[in-house]
Batch of 4 targets.
Target 1
Amino acid sequence: MEIIFRLLNIVAWLVFFALGASPEDTFNFLRIVSGVTVWEALINSPWAITVALTLYYSHFIYHRCVESQLPKFESLMKSIQTGLMAFLAFLPLRPDFDLYKNMVHQEHIKVIYLILTLKVFFWIFLLTIVVFYYLNGNKVFKKLPDLFLDLYPVLNKKDKKNISNHIP
């Protein structure tokens, strides 16, 4: 019975990630289904979906890291790191190559292609984290690389523990 619950959670996360893959289409679909016109809408931007999904994913990662008994400071840093990745993964940027080929500055095309590549990579990476969590438990969060803590060599393990005790 537990495996069914885990599989259903993975399916729910697949829907979550499918909505985030193209926030513009999700936004337009929700607006059409709800019958809200552009003039009546309180929010007229797919960025609301991007921000909401990013915050939710970051919140999820933070609580799973704390649940796996990581220090709170490290959990916070991992949630911020994955939040930045989720923001890129859920950007409202379409792979519309016909639109980009007519840009005036050809240098911008390289930047857009780089962002699109990162979007796809982070989308797959973040989905993989969730799938591994539901199939293998909290071990994935302990093995999740933490780029922020590695950038601060001044913080040794003793300082990290002191900082983690002061963060709520």
Note: The chain has a mean pLDDT of 85.
Target 2
Amino acid sequence: MRKTRWIFIALVFAVGSPLSGQTPDEELTRRIAAAEGAQRPDVLLRAASAARLLGDHEAAADLLERATAALDQAENDWVSETIFQALASGKGVNGMQRAFREARERIRMTPQEIASVTNNYPALLVGGEFDEMILSFRPNHPDSLYRCPCLAEKAWVHRVAGRLHESRILWGELVASWDRNPLQFPNDPDAQANWQGQYARNLARAGRSADARAALAKAMAMPVSDDERPSVQRRWAQTYAELGEVEMAVELLEPLISSSTLVTVNSLSTRQTWEPVRNTLVFQEMLARHR
């Protein structure tokens, strides 16, 4: 159990539960009803406590399980936001690594959880702190904590270290697995468009340029909502960057810099995904226009 979770649970019950006296059954029932569809850990924990006091242990166990999942998600979101704040505020790679180090002091993370974060923020791999751990992952590892293909995570380790050939091989294995089992989101066009953009980008990372261009053309023809378009458009730009088509990447990125999106001058100056084109004149001119 992560130590932050114990602190959070203690605060919930210290603030949300009466110190003395008996809570009426009507209030306990209301707390359980309030948890229907809820995702806030405090609401779910209060409901679990209420169900326990009412003697409905099956409902209490279910609510406690949901609260645990919500706490996991809250912790994941907090770690990500802490790192992204360092990135967005211009603290660079060192600031991101410092934020992640401080997060790990507060939250006990498994090796796979650490690898997952570095996959989202590969700049954390600069310096090689996690290389040995991530490269030791394999599907049949005797230790379940290291039992994972983790192809993208390992690909990033090699790429950040400058081993581009090894990186491309792993990206190739990843997209080959996607070719065998392509994800389908029949009821969520935004998710489908986002996945198609990632697929095109990863094909480019694997060195399958012709396939990447074909997949990108398909991605850019897909319907996508206005709310999700900035995220999906960023995937398209990443694909063009991987293909070395800087002008096309810039054309897609520049409108995003001026609005409230994940694309900022600081993110473009720091994130590893833009490394292939970062030092080109066209890319640097775009950054200069928005500083």
Note: DSSP finds 15 helices and no strands in the chain.
Target 3
Amino acid sequence: MTVITRTEIAPRPPVGTLPVAEWGLLSRVARPCPDHGGECPCVARDVEGGCLVFWCDSGEHHFSNR
């Protein structure tokens, strides 16, 4: 089993989203940023939009991926 530990805390998730638990399964999901590449961790769920929200350290912004 692999354990992922975040060393930096991302800013607050966007308004209207629910943050994911750092120890939860969704915190282990990562996607590349469409603008900057790299692996970006999931930081929140957008329940209304039906998608996950990710944090890009390189561009210091949130993005979603459906």
Note: The CA atoms of residues 24 and 30 lie 13 Å apart.
Target 4
Amino acid sequence: MATMLDLACAGTFSAGILVTLLNKALADGARNWAARLAWALIGTAIGIYVFGCIRGMLYSLDAGVVVGRSRGGGQATFHRDEHPLLFGITFLALTCGTGVIAFLSMVCLWKAVKRD
């Protein structure tokens, strides 16, 4: 079941992609208001995703359970009381990943307001 934040993120991201495609088709991707709007929409969508990640991390700290997943489909669940070292390592890795994604959001928003 999708939450309101999921729908806002998907809608904003889709709108950013649509504006990008229309801008490329009509203006050959020139730096204009449409390109800035597309950067702002994509940056906002990524920012909404980061907000959801931070909420999940705060819940993980409160509940004391963290789940690490791999691209191959496997997952491991670590409870803070049973595996404190693995809990800390997994939580730190997820925090670093969220930081990288937040940096990408800031770059997109910077490209939207930067003057060439």
Note: The radius of gyration is 18 Å.
